[in-house]
Design goal:
This protein has 366 residues and is an alpha+beta fold. The protein has a 5-stranded antiparallel beta sheet. Helix 5 packs across helix 6. The chain is globular.
Length: 366
């Protein structure tokens, strides 16, 4: 149901062998290149971006390379990567000095994420991918490729779910040499013989890129010290809140910039260890559950407060126009939330937080 509602999500293993040209063009132009600039945009140095930059970027999309029917290639992410609206690492900012808010930044992906390649840029350096939560451009050197069988794993295969915010995966049983970092909710399939009662590390299958760009699965190792769980975590409000608090104080990152989280990526990752896949966008996240209260012309803040007093802490989201928070309970009749917050308006000026924080709904004046 969530997949149908958002239009951007997909189960990679269930995708067809190809996509029509009309559908692919629509996806490529979902976030169009602003060739005819009607508002000013700026680069990371604060300089205004001129039309030639966007014209050159439009050419990179390789729209002439879209066929009537386009075969899909399946892959696995082997290195942390950004998911971009357009095939460039150049920042495009709404205002000078807002380098942390790159309008082309969609999300980020970590090793072991399954993806599907739909199209490539003219220079062959970028691929337009379907990830589980969003479509966008990823550098091709960050992905290894194989057949659907090579990439996928059987649903019956035993696996671990990462419950820590970020954890390292090692190439040796002594846990000395790191081969990658994975984030909360990552599923890693067990390799060889593993025993929960053993003092040794977990052995898992981990992706590497072969000399021809093919997927190579190596045996890698993870500590058993509490930041992974065999299978999915039991879905309870207490467990969800526990996952959220593992990220308290972590630095804000718009669109997953630098491997950090913004508000919606925070919420998405909180629920992943339970096998619950939410959209990447905060507005879409607000539309996938049962709406128990709504603040518009017919409602007031008192209605929202009353609804939250009856709502289940840990499994109730509170969404604003471009923000999402997790309800964690009430104290002295006042509801509290945990959220990844860039800041708030105090009535006179903007006060930056740029952290995962706990607050009441009284924070700020708007």
């Amino acid at each position: 149901d969530t997949l149908k509602k958002t239009g951007q999500m997909a189960e990679i293993g269930d995708m067809p062998e190809g996509v029509s040209g009309d559908e692919l063009r629509d996806w490529l132009l979902y976030d169009p290149v602003p060739e005819n600039i009607t508002v000013k945009r700026y680069d990371s140095g604060g300089r205004e971006i001129k039309s030639p930059f966007f014209a050159e970027l439009a050419g990179r999309l390789n729209l002439d390379g879209v066929k009537e029917y386009n075969h899909i290639r399946f892959g696995v992410v082997v290195d942390e990567a950004d998911v971009r609206a357009l095939p460039t690492e150049e920042a495009v900012l709404e205002r000078p000095g807002k380098a942390g808010f790159d309008t082309l930044q969609y999300s980020s992906v970590f090793p072991a994420e399954r993806v599907a390649l739909l199209h490539t840029s003219v220079d062959g350096g970028w691929g337009f991918f379907q990830t589980p939560t969003v479509r966008g451009w990823i550098r091709l050197d960050k992905v290894a490729f194989g057949s659907r069988i090579d990439v996928a794993a059987s649903p019956a295969d035993p696996f671990l779910t990462v419950t820590g915010s970020l954890i390292k995966v090692y190439g040796d049983r002594g846990l000395k040499t790191s081969v990658g970092t994975v984030d909360m909710g990552t599923v890693l399939y067990l390799s060889g013989e593993n025993r929960a009662e053993s003092a040794g590390p977990w052995a898992v299958r981990f992706p590497q890129k072969g000399p021809q760009g093919e997927i190579v699965w190596i045996e890698a190792y993870i500590s058993k010290r509490g930041r992974v769980h065999p299978g999915y975590l039991p879905y309870t409000g207490r467990n969800v809140i526990g996952q959220a608090f593992k990220m308290i104080g972590e630095e804000y990152g718009w669109g997953g910039n630098g491997g950090r989280r913004d508000c919606s990526e925070f919420i998405k990752d909180v629920f992943l260890p339970f096998g619950i896949k939410l959209p990447r966008n905060s507005r879409q996240q607000g539309g996938v559950g049962n709406v128990i209260a709504q603040l518009d012309g017919a409602y007031s803040k008192s209605v929202l407060t009353a609804a939250l007093k009856k709502a289940a802490p840990g499994i109730t989201l509170v969404t604003l126009k471009s923000h999402v928070m997790l309800h964690i309970g009430s104290m002295s009749g006042k509801p509290y939330v945990i959220h990844q917050a860039s800041g708030y308006w105090d009535g006179k000026r903007f006060k930056a937080l740029n952290r995962v924080v706990v607050s009441s709904l009284d924070l700020g004046k708007r």
